[in-house]
Amino acid sequence: xxxxxxxxxxxxxxxxxxxxxxxxxxxxxxxxxxxxxxxxxxxxxxxxxxxxxxxxxxxxxxxxxxxxxxxxxxxxxxxxxxxxxxxxxxxxxxxxxxxxxxxxxxxxxxxxxxxxxxxxxxxxxxxxxxxxxxxxxxxxxxxxxxxxxxxxxxxxxxxxxxxxxxxxxxxxxxxxxxxxxxxxxxxxxxxxxxxxxxxxxxxxxx
Amino acid sequence: xxxxxxxxxxxxxxxxxxxxxxxxxxxxxxxxxxxxxxxxxxxxxxxxxxxxxxxxxxxxxxxxxxxxxxxxxxxxxxxxxxxxxxxxxxxxxxxxxxxxxxxxxxxxxxxxxxxxxxxxxxxxxxxxxxxxxxxxxxxxxxxxxxxxxxxxxxxxxxxxxxxxxxxxxxxxxxxxxxxxxxxxxxxxxxxxxxxxxxxxxxxxxx
Lengths: 206, 206
What we know:
The first copy, chain A, is α+β, with helices and mostly antiparallel strands. Chain A contains 10 helices and 4 strands; from the N terminus they run βαβααααααααββα. In chain A, strands 2-1-3-4 form a 4-stranded mixed beta sheet, sandwiched between helices.
């Protein structure tokens, strides 16, 4: 028998994914739930499902204004640093590919936190190879080897498959959480519920 | 000196407004915050801000699927009845006008709960005058007099002004909560935060 698991679908350009990524490990450990890290690209889904070529937070001014203020309030309450990125959304393609490289070796969570901190607390350009190389170095990974692997066809294909899989599971925003039983939760504010559901499901009560 | 106040902006066709409307009085009483009831029409805002002529939950299938499941989970957790309306969204014009009529006499909260229960727990057509008349009768209000007033120009104008005011305050969805200091919170899941903010603001700490 395996323990409870929850898939964490996240996009490196997404503000609420930042908050979720910084919280999820402590919360999951406390709940006794294993997290499956699922970086994907939200852009293709927004385009396929809503015909959008930009984030709704840029397209609808009122939504954007509320989101940034809401994010400030949440980060202040949670003690998370926040510096509004000078470019939003940032291109997350390279970071997502690199994150996929780290899944087997297990450094994806550390890299993910580093990328989000760079993007949302330091206003660094996460699409810049030099920045990503530096982040990899800080988590004691062979940056050159990883970047070479991230450039390869297998990883490019893996990210396409991952993004398609998000779509097939009904994902339409980030972060999203998916239990083994297929229960989908959208939004950082649903993280606690999703963890509780994964646990309940694993105990056969859901 | 007045106590803390929070404006509750709601739309009778909105699912998450239903949950908020059923919770807000107990939560506000516990927090010591006065609620200002602000029924408005979301449709004109969705159209003006996003060019939509229908709810995003119908326009984007994935969003709709998640919303209904999320609502089921929330209602189950909160002990609220839920029967998915056979028509969604229902036309909320009459109900919103009637709700405005009741503000001075103070029966708007009771009427609001009755309308939401009819729409989301009993699958009744809240745009039907006979249904609204019945709901008014149940809260011991002179239904004919109220309906006549709801049909008059002053109330029609008042609803237009109210909806315009929502827009001017940056509202783009329902429910929304607005503090006296202009702090805007969107979504039923922000109700606790909004109440806490209103209190803090009133104490001069915000």
